[in-house]
Amino acid sequence: MEEDFSLVSEDESSDNMQFIHDEIEKLKGRYNALLNDHKLLIEAKDNNIRFAQEFHQRAENRKKCLEADKISQAKDLQKEQERLADLKQEENKLKKELGIIQQELELMDETHQSLKQQTEVSTAVPEKKVVFQGETAEEGDALSFDVKPHIVYPMEGGTAFITFEEEDVAEKILALKDHVVQLGECSIKVRAEPVQFLVPSCVEMDTQVCPRRILVSNLPKKESVERVLDKLEIHFSKSKHGGGEVEESVMLEDSGNIIITFLDTNIAKGLTDKQVHEVEMERGKKFKVKVTPFLNGEITLLKTANITCSKTVRLTGIPPVMEKDNLQDLLEIHFQKSANSGGEVDAIVYNPMGERTFAVFQKDTSKTE
Q1: For residue 256, how far is the Cα from the chain centroid?
Q2: In this entry, which stretches build a coiled coil (predicted)?
Q3: What's the Cα-to-Cα distance from 344 to each of 328, 336, 340, rounded to whole Å?
Q4: pLDDT tens-digit series, residues 70-129
Q5: pTM to 2 decimals?
Q6: Do residues 216 and 127 make contact, with C-beta atoms less than 8 angstroms apart?
Q7: Phi/psi of residue 335, each to 5°?
Q8: pLDDT tens digits, residue range 263-301?
Q9: Which residues contact 14 (CB under 8 A, 6 or more apart)?
Q10: What is the CATH number of domain 124-369?
Q11: Of 49, 209, 248, 231, which Cα lies nearest the Cα of 114?
């Protein structure tokens, strides 16, 4: 092989070395730059990895929050649905209550009309003479009515009823129970017992105005019942007096008023609206009577209670040792004496053995109501 050796000058070699050195420096610069770029890339990569991890963590947290929100919304939706169901149930309940209230209002309206009719009747009742004696009552008492007690009590043989003027005397006699009564040379043993009754404590009535009947009051006292009935029937059977065909006329013995019943239902109202009617009892002589509605009543509630007479004592076990009047007088004398725990006697009745009688109990008028 042939080799060609060229001659190179020293200047050219120096230039080449410088060129090579410069190239090496450039390459070092580029290398350093590449090292910096590599470092930056590594830092960027680390940052991107960190950012990716943080993003992934945020995404996981957001996902959990969304799932929690979804569960919470589902629970809220269920609560709202339950609340809506409760509201619908409450609405149905209120509708039922409204229906019941409407029925009650209708019933109350009917009752109101009935009461209104009865209120109109209350201004047209049979007249009774009354007077104020200074007594007062609570408002609630004004809405009630009093029933006068009239109790017929059967007496057994060998018993007596004795009524004292003071209640405490009766209490003392009852507390002692057994009493020895001196009857001259002999004595008898009697027992004191309380007198009790079963009486009404509360009465409620449902009343309605009868469309075919009227109640006629303020009648003449001197005329016979038969004549008054005839005259009233004749008067109220005539259409010119506002009447009609009469079916029946009856006298109420306890009040002295008369009930007239018509065949038609449109007669009574017109007669009661006028109230005062002039009936001819004798030719050319008229008498004013009062016509009021007749009320049909039905007891809807009746309550009873046991009461004890506060002043009356029943004496039992009285043997027939002497005549009735004498024994009754001796009993009264015995129980009048304070030494025998007695007091003033208001009334006494004795029923001997083998006889039967009835004692009548009425309202105690000595008390201030």
Answers
A1: 38
A2: 17-104
A3: 15, 5, 12
A4: 999 999 999 999 999 999 999 999 999 999 999 999 888 877 766 665 555 544 455 555
A5: 0.47
A6: no
A7: -85, 0
A8: 998 899 999 988 899 998 888 788 899 999 988 878 888
A9: none
A10: 3.30.70.330
A11: 209
